[in-house]
Amino acid sequence: MLPIRRALLSVSDKKGLVELGKFLQKWQVELLSTGGTARLLRENGLPVTDVSAFTGFPEILDGRVKTLHPKIYGGLLALRDNPEHQRQMTENNLVPIDLVVCNLYPFEATLARGAQHSEIIENIDIGGPCMIRAAAKNYAFVVVVVKPEFYPALMEEMEKNHGSVSEDFSFRCAREVYRLTSHYDAVIFSYLEKKGSPEKLPESLNLHLEKFRSVRYGENPHQQGAFYRQAGENPRGLSAAEILQGKELSFNNYLDLDAVLTGVREFEEPTAYIVKHLSPCGVASHPKLAEAYRLALECDPLSAFGGIVGFNREVDGETAEAILQGMEKYGFLECLLAPDFTAEARKKLAVKKNLRLVVISNLQASDPLDVKRVTGGWLVQEPDRAEILEWKVVTERQPTEEEKRALLFAWKVCKTTRSNAIVYAKGTATVGIGGGLYSRVDANRLAAAKAGPRSRGAVLASDAFFPQPDNIEVAYQAGITAIIQPGGSIKDQESVDACNRYQMAMVFTGMRHFRH
Questions:
Q1: Is 373 left (phi over 0), alpha (psi -120 to 50) or beta?
Q2: CATH of the structural domain 2-196, one choice from 3.40.50.1380, 3.20.20.190, 1.25.40.390, 3.10.420.10
């Protein structure tokens, strides 16, 4: 057990401080403190010794130097079971410090509110990290608490052990210190790195992740899983999601929700976006959100079974009714994602107790970098936010205005579909999608098969160039009238010639959209 006889308190966040001070006084713990912390304790009638009086050296440099002194660090770092340490303590008139209560200058909060650089620099804590690291190193004899949330556990531990704490508790507190200081330093480094090196892909990338939420299981029920988020950043995307109803989300739910979020944010008109296994199986835009959902579901209701639906508008009662009718006819859905749900929609959808309702109020908030884990490292790239590099009609026939609108819609869907990707669309609704296949012509055939007779008069979008003109043959047989694709194949001219032969219009964008 570690008896607590002397404590040093120096905090920026003073929540719960007075209550803790009164508790320590009850156990006759001598209190040492600094600046505003000491002042607050005194104002509440607690006896406090200023650190400057304890060390015999004043606070200097506007408080930049106050705890950096041998009397502090000797009291923290001395091993109580080491005779030589104890001899040196006596020789130098040092006394042990058994408890440190300290939280650091609010660097992240200062950064978040957009403070000036000079103020941000002043909120880089020096003495605090040094002190808590020293105490944590000596956790076998010194307890260090760095968050007000830990005060109740400390008091409970001391009550239970008559003014002492267990080494196990001290170890857990020490571990939290190094989690905190590693994160604190990483945030400071990240800020200075961005300020000194404005490159989009920096030389060093800080990925300091904290566990945000457990998931039901990993990709399969025998695998554990959890959702981690970048520590210290404002919540966005799925880390800002509010789950209104339904079961706990699984690992695969999060992956599909991310695909939905990526897709639905591409559209300005009211849009429904249905995903299954990371790729859309139906997308539609329409002035009425309920109609957008019905059109999206018609694209491939078989694949929508067990899928996830995203909306870029608040889900109203009419849309909720359309969702329930679709589930009655075609089977269950896993999740619905939207910026909000009306009270009427929530009431209607509540009958499906396992259907998760996920609210992300700001659909457009996205990550600055796209990061993917691979064995032994990480791949990092800019997110694919580009649209079309050029609009180049390469055939004898120009697309009509109606075809142009459908081509632009199909291109957006194609951009968010797994490669190889082919999208058939009429107006602003998909009628067939082939994605995630090894061969582009097979993806084309799948899209044609999914569309069936609805492909007559539709347009086609491809996320990359056609390696062979056989894709034009498949499209022609399906009844496609216009095509949009990046171009860039050595056989582009053969594809152009085939389109001219069939009086199809074709547009090159000069930009591909692989999505692996």
A1: beta
A2: 3.40.50.1380
According to the CATH classification, is domain 392-508 in 3.40.50.2300? no
- Residue 62 makes CB contacts below 8 A (sequence gap 6+) with none
Rounding to the nearest 10 degrees, give the CA dihedral for residues 326, 313, 422, 370: -130
Tell me how far the alpha carbon of residue 97 is from its chain's centroid: 40
Q: How would CATH label the architecture of 235-359? A: 3-Layer(aba) Sandwich (3.40)
Domains 2-196 and 235-359 share a fold: no
**What span, in angstroms and rounded, lies between the C-alpha atoms of 494 and 416?**
28
CA distance 431 to 296: 8
Count how many Cα atoms sit within 13 Å of the Cα of residue 314 in the half-sphere of its side chain.
Answer: 10
Answer whether 230's CB lies under 8 Å from 208's CB: yes
Cis bond leading into 420, ω under 30°?
Answer: yes
**Rounded distance, CA 10 to CA 134, Å?**
15
Using DSSP's 3-state secondary structure scheme, residue 229 falls into strand
**Cβ neighbours for 311, distance < 8 A, ≥ 6 positions apart:** 264, 270, 271, 272, 273, 289, 292, 293, 319, 336, 337, 338, 339
Residues 490 and 230: their CA atoms lie apart, in Å, by: 43
Residue 359: other Cβ atoms inside 10 A? 17
Domain boundaries, the chain: 2-196, 235-359, 392-508
> From the CA atom positions of the chain, what is the Rg in Å?
31
pTM for the model:
0.80
Contact between 354 and 246 (Cβ < 8 Å): yes
Residues known to be catalytic: 137, 277
Are the C-beta atoms of residues 206 and 186 closer than 8 Å to each other?
yes
Assess contact for 431 and 424: CB atoms under 8 A: yes
Q: What is the mean pLDDT of each run of 10 residues along the chain (516 residues)?
A: 91 91 91 89 90 80 79 88 87 90 86 85 87 92 93 92 91 92 84 73 77 89 91 82 91 94 94 95 98 97 96 97 96 96 97 95 87 89 85 96 97 93 97 94 96 97 93 97 95 95 96 88
Name the phi and psi angles at 5, rounded to 5.
Answer: -115, -30
